[in-house]
Structures are given as structure tokens and as C-alpha cells.
Design brief:
Blueprint: E1 3-8, H1 15-28, E2 32-35, H2 52-62, E3 67-70, H3 81-94, E4 99-103, H4 108-111, H5 121-139, E5 144-147, E6 152-156, E7 168-171, H6 175-181, E8 187-189, H7 195-204, E9 213-221, H8 225-236, H9 243-246, H10 252-258, H11 264-270, E10 273-274, H12 277-289, E11 294-299, H13 305-323
Helix pairs in contact: 1-2, 1-13, 3-5, 8-11, 12-13
């Protein structure tokens, strides 16, 4: 059965609110919650960027059954991979084995803060490959000494590990990244319902065991469609640039400039807006039709977040589960 998640979007809500939303998501029956891991919002109007790992630690203690994930952590610039492994293992312990570490090659917007050069995509993939080896070995309980082209580790070990190894998902976008990373991670992460990507992933992982395919989709639920469109345009017009553009822009001002000609109607074409739950189900169905096993919903904006959870999330989950096929 398709699993449905709730997004703790750190760019648009403060840390205390995010913990409260996670508690509601747990109570409502969402299967999992994913948290963005950013140092900046995409646009100034979003207005937040709390530290994801502190938030997730609090959420682990404030919830009972909700699986937790990063979506996604970049372990190559702002964080050293050995530090990411320690954070993931600790959260695995705190959550009682409810944590999955999802990683990717990151965005300049969130990594430039440490003052290092932003590498080109090929180099970032080289770095991510090394990072996955280091993180995987540490999560396996090994004592790790490693010297690569980009990272060094000197006799590292994780002293607190959960009973079951923390699973790793990796964000991929095409054949090259699938072939490179599929054997180093357990699960696929993607932001578009690409059936060919899922097929390539399954073929590359043949014989390596079961694997989840985890996607994410923004929605702008609200009782007034015009207001929902306006909110989506204000908060999410950056989304239309695509990740090849989004990965390299360094500041919120750059995202403002890059999205200045995006119209509200353009956003409404790609994000379901308004009170129609069936329209949201139809948009989400593209993911399970493409072979995704897990889909996280992003309710755009903080203004109606609590109202979405109070009024719409429960009925929406019922409709999604009724419509989704069993796997």
C-alpha cells in the first residue's frame, strides 16, 4: 500500500510550530514525516530556517509512531559525512528506530554559508559518493579510517547505534546518478513522478533487496481557491525553476530575481490549489502510477497549516488511501 507523509518544511515555519504540526500528523495517521534541512528559506517571504536536526530530535520525543526522514541532507559541504552519520545514528536511537537518512548533492543556497567554493555537479557527485561510503560504514558499526579525494576520516566510530541500522535514501535525477548511487543506498528519493527513473533504479538494484521510492508534492489547500493560488505564488514560485537551476542559485535575492516573471496561473498549473481534495488526489496519483511507494505532501505556507491539519488532512488521507493501489 502506498504510504503518505507530511512535510515539516523548515523554510516556512518556526521550530515550535513544526513540532506541534508533527504531533498532529502523528495523531492523524500520516505514515511518515520528512523534514527539509536548510540554512536559508527559498524566498524571504517564507521567513524561517531552524536547524532540522534539533527539530527532528524534539519531534522524535513528541511523537509515538510517525517515521521520520530528512528530505534531504547534503553531507558534502556544510556537514562532514562523519558528523552526518553520528547525527543519523543518534536520531535513530532517540526515535526508537523510526529514522531514515535521505541525502543528496545539495543546493548552493544552503551550503554557501560555510564560505567554501560551490562545486560543479560532477564534483558534487564525486563528493556524495565518498560521503555515502563513509556514512554507510559508520552506520554499519565499523571503525572507519578513510582518505579520499575530498574527505578524510581518522579512526572514527559511532558509539550509540540503534538496534536496526539507519536506512539511507539518495536523491537521484537520471541514469548516471542511479547507476552511481543505487548500490550505496537503500531507497530512491525524487521530486518528480518519473516512471523511467523508478524502472532504472529497480533494474540497478536487482538482487539487492527491497527498496522504497520516496517522492514529494506541494499542495496549496484552502477554502478560497484564489487565496490558495496567491499563497502558492508568494511562497512557492521558486519551485518552477527546476533543480538544475535551483541547485546553483546562492541567495534568496537570486531566487526572487529568477522567479520574478512567474505568474500565479503558472504556479496553479503545477500545484493543486484550493479546497478540492479530489484534485489533490489526482495530482498525487501521478506518483503511485510512476511506481513510487511513499509520497510526502507539502502544504504550502504556514498561514493555513494548522487549519489544513484540523480540517482537510484527515479526509484527504482517507481519499488517498482509497484511491491508491496496493503494492
Amino acid at each position: 500500500m502506498t504510504r503518505f507523509g507530511y512535510t515539516l518544511m523548515t523554510e516556512q515555519s518556526g521550530p515550535r510550530e513544526l513540532v506541534r504540526y508533527a504531533q498532529d500528523a502523528d495523531r492523524l495517521g500520516f505514515d511518515f514525516a520528512v523534514s527539509s534541512d536548510h540554512s536559508f528559506p527559498w524566498l524571504d517571504s517564507q521567513g524561517h530556517a531552524p536547524y532540522a536536526w534539533t527539530v527532528l530530535g524534539a519531534v522524535a520525543q513528541a511523537t509515538e509512531r510517525l517515521e521520520l526522514m530528512t528530505y534531504v541532507t547534503c553531507p558534502i559541504v556544510r556537514y562532514h559525512p562523519a558528523v552526518v552519520a553520528q547525527k543519523a545514528a543518534t536520531l535513530g536511537v532517540l526515535s526508537g528506530g523510526r529514522f531514515t537518512l535521505n541525502v543528496g548533492a545539495g543546493e548552493n543556497l544552503n551550503e554557501h554559508v560555510v564560505g567554501q567554493r560551490w562545486p560543479a555537479v560532477g564534483e558534487r557527485h564525486d563528493m556524495l559518493e565518498e560521503a555515502l561510503v563513509i556514512i554507510g560504514d559508520l552506520l554499519d558499526g565499523e571503525r572507519v579510517t578513510y582518505e579520499g579525494a575530498h574527505f578524510r576520516v581518522d579512526s572514527a566510530r559511532l558509539w550509540d547505534l540503534p538496534e536496526q541500522r539507519v536506512p539511507i535514501g539518495v536523491a537521484v535525477s537520471g541514469a548516471q546518478s542511479v547507476s552511481r548511487f543505487s548500490a550505496l543506498a537503500d531507497h530512491l528519493v525524487a521530486v518528480e513522478p518519473d516512471a523511467d527513473l523508478v524502472t532504472r533504479w529497480e533494474e540497478a538494484r536487482a538482487g539487492l533487496g527491497p527498496s522504497r521510492k520516496i517522492g514529494q508534492i506541494p499542495i496549496s489547500w484552502g477554502p478560497d481557491r484564489d487565496e490558495a493560488v496567491a499563497r502558492a505564488h508568494d511562497q512557492f514560485r521558486w519551485f518552477g525553476g527546476g533543480w538544475k537551476v535551483n541547485a546553483d542559485l546562492p541567495t534568496t535575492e537570486a531566487f526572487e530575481a529568477a522567479s520574478q516573471f512567474v505568474r500565479p496561473e503558472d504556479v496553479a498549473e503545477s500545484i493543486p490549489c484550493g479546497p478540492d481534495l479530489d484534485a489533490i488526489v489526482e495530482a498525487v496519483s501521478a506518483y503511485w502510477e510512476a511506481g513510487f511507494t511513499d509520497v510526502a505532501l507539502v502544504q504550502v505556507g504556514d498561514a493555513l497549516q494548522q487549519r489544513f491539519l484540523d480540517e482537510a488532512a484527515g479526509p484527504l488521507l482517507e481519499r488517498l488511501r482509497a484511491a491508491a493501489p496496493a503494492h
